């Protein structure tokens, strides 16, 4: 898969390197030549340009990208201008980095539904989510075990947890099931998530629900695929 990352500070750099290590094409963009030079041997491609310059940005393969991540954190104005430019260019999947409540409000007003708070979500977690489209979020609790939020795999839609028997088949435990919906709040369209409580053998999995899984990543990937 192909990703374009604007901003090669600590977060953007870590994300670009991890995506490259996972076998994806990562294009890193920054207006600081020093940062670009430092990464040119570590990620797929690096480009030095002004991220707010439309004539420069349109030269990038944005339409071919599976997602465009605006990882600019130091300069909120540039981050928002870059995001607005990408919306103007019709980029479908934009992930914004949030460093303040005001910036989050502006992104929501732009109808940016995906954003990350680097203090809460590491580059590793975002890379894992981008690496596998089924993963909604992840949290590594030790070197061995992780908690993963993932969409219900199609083959298990309509089945109960007892019928699926993930513990016996994959050594994976379902902690709970999340229902995801969209609604309006203060005039903005937002995504709301509601947990169904502790999962039981009788819990039935439905389309568009999210499973919260506990186990080793290799076992969770087997379940998902």
UniProtKB/TrEMBL annotation:
Residues 1-117 form the RCK N-terminal domain. Gene3D superfamilies: NAD(P)-binding Rossmann-like Domain (3.40.50.720), Regulator of K+ conductance, C-terminal domain (3.30.70.1450). InterPro entries: NAD(P)-bd_dom_sf, RCK_C_sf, RCK_N, Trk_Ktr_HKT_K-transport. One of its GO terms (biological process) is potassium ion transport. PROSITE patterns: RCK_N. This is Trk system potassium uptake protein TrkA. It comes from Dyadobacter jejuensis.
């Amino acid at each position: 898969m192909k990703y374009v990352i604007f901003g090669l500070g600590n977060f953007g750099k870590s994300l670009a390197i991890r995506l490259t290590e996972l076998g994806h094409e990562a294009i890193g963009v920054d207006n600081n030549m020093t940062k670009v030079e430092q990464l040119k041997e570590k990620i797929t491609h690096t480009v030095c340009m002004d991220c707010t310059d439309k004539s420069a940005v349109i030269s990038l393969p944005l339409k071919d990208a599976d997602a465009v991540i605006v990882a600019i954190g130091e300069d909120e104005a540039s981050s928002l201008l870059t995001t607005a430019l990408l919306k103007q260019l019709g980029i479908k999947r934009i992930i914004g980095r949030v460093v303040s409540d005001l910036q989050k409000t502006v992104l929501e007003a732009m109808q940016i539904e995906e954003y990350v708070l680097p203090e809460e979500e590491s580059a590793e977690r975002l890379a894992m989510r981008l690496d596998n489209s089924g993963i909604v979020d992840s949290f590594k609790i030790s070197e061995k075990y992780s908690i993963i939020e993932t969409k219900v795999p199609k083959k298990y839609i309509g089945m109960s947890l007892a019928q699926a028997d993930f513990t016996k088949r994959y050594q994976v435990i379902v902690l709970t099931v999340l229902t995801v919906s969209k609604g309006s709040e203060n005039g903005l369209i937002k995504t709301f998530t509601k947990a169904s409580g502790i999962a039981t053998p009788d819990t039935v999995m439905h389309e568009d629900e999210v499973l919260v899984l506990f186990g080793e990543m290799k076992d969770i990937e087997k379940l998902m695929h």
